[in-house]
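notes to self, project folder thing:

trying the whole complex as one job this time. last attempt i did each chain seperately and stitching them together was a nightmare. two parts in total, labels are on each line so i dont mix them up again. if this works i'll redo the older ones the same way
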Amino acid sequence: MDFLIILGDASRAAIGPEAAIYAMAAIGLNMHFGYTGLLNFGQVGFMLVGAYGAAVAVATFNAPLWAGVLVGVALAILLALLLGVPTLRLRADYLAITTIALGEILRYIYRSNFASPVTGGVYGLTRFADPLYTINPIPPGQYGFGRLAYSSQSLWIMVISWSLVALVCVLMFLIIQSPWGRVIRSVREDEDAARSLGKNVFGYKMQSLVFGGVLGAVSGMLLAFYAQAVQPDAYSPVVTFYLYTLLILGGAGRILGPVVGSVIFWFVLVCTDSFLRQAIGAGLISASLISPTEVGAVRFALVGAGLMLLMIYRPQGILGDRREMMLGDR
Amino acid sequence: MTAESAPRAPRLEDIAPEPGVAKPDPILVADDVTKSFGGLRAVQVGRLEVQRGAITALIGPNGAGKTTLFNLLTGFDRPDSGSWSFDGRPLSGLPAYRAARAGMVRTFQLTKSLTLLTVLENLKLASTQQLGERFFASMVRPLWRAQEENIERRADAMLARFSLDRLRDDFAGTLSGGQRKLLELARALMARPTMIMLDEPTAGVNPALTQSLLGHIMKLRDEGMTILFVEHDMDVVMGISDWVVCMAEGHLIAEGPPGSIGSDGAVIDAYLGAHHGRRAGGEG
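result (full assembly):
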């Protein structure tokens, strides 16, 4: 049982590419849920169309990677418009139901047989992000020390992803502090009041949906570039639930909430995983109680229990304000 | 209140007190507005004119359709039929935010203070035509900084006028019921309306604050604002209104100056039931 290994594993995940990528998608969700009050349960759908938009453009149609990125963003905008027109006039819970269904519909379409000539079906597409790695300025090798080390490829994606996250956080800060952000927050508080003051609530919800959706698509693309693969079942509804988990953990309606949430989420998740494996390896936990293959499931159960405690004792999240939480009726 | 902003005194005394009667200078004219909920005819108003620059009270027993009529006229609900115009422009069928932009701003029976916005933000929000409310412009602060400073000055003046300046930076959710009513009125005024529609402005407000609220409303009228309000408290109606419109069971049943509306037979019937008058007559 080596606590340095556990700490090293957990830290590597906490600042690694996945944490940045999840933070990006959660910032989009924060735009929807945290600031506008839109219950989008299909953020993974935006990640999927972004990832596949880029991958299909490059791998199937031999487009350059930059064009693939534009296709991914354009598809996210299109998805937001298609989704928003019929549902944004409805009550919040209808949006939740529609979005969760839409995410699943998209996943089944992309993995279906009839789509496989374009999307690669259940196997997906691979090796479409080579141009991104050929411009990697970091020489090949391992960087870091002990378990806290990254390959030059991971480090490259980390640099790109965290830079984008930082950029988007600055952007979020600017727009939320602006009169635009004031209208968006008023829509969250009471859309009829916003309407009575001459604000086009539908238009603002749509802008929020599109902007947050594009952030989701960017996150999906980064994930696809990092793995050099897209595979439909990687975009299952559970990803959206992780995003909600880390958003609420960090604090919804806070600029840095999703970032803090993502770092802590990945730290705790991998820490639990590494601890269980170490404990089983050292014989502290009998292998008949939890076998190494069951660790993956058990860690999520433990993380779930931890989140339950968090909800009971700190429902506003790490960066949230309890007083505001009590005032709000959500 | 300067001489130039002093309104033409609304000459309503000479008008015949009958439902749907024409006014000398109507700002709002509605025709054949109907709305049903299932089998219930909630609103069935043949004609309604609201005089510019006057305080018009809309009264009637519970369920008379007053709030529904409010919702229809302000675009918060869609009518089955009917048309209306505001300030000479047709307004029927337009969404609520367009009605508000046309200058007809309403408040709500149950106050809708934006809980997690501060009192100041509530007011600043209401200001119209803000450049910083556009998505791309919002990222470039220099584009809208000057306008924002102007709005803040105006909001501070409004807060002072309604004695809310002490609460400027508090969340609106921490305000008392009466303070919220004041905030809603102040917020509506920030939108620079030509007419405000108040749905039960004094409901749940303590007597002292009610007096202050009514003072504000009369002052607004003296400055040239048109006010239409729904009210149940007859003392309030008699005290401040220039004209009273009474609804019952969706219909507009009576109109008149506040002094005479209380003795209108249709109004007494609506409030006390048609049987009451007959039985009282029989006993007398």
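what i see at first glance: Chain B has two domains: 26-112+176-259, 114-174.
need to look closer tmrw
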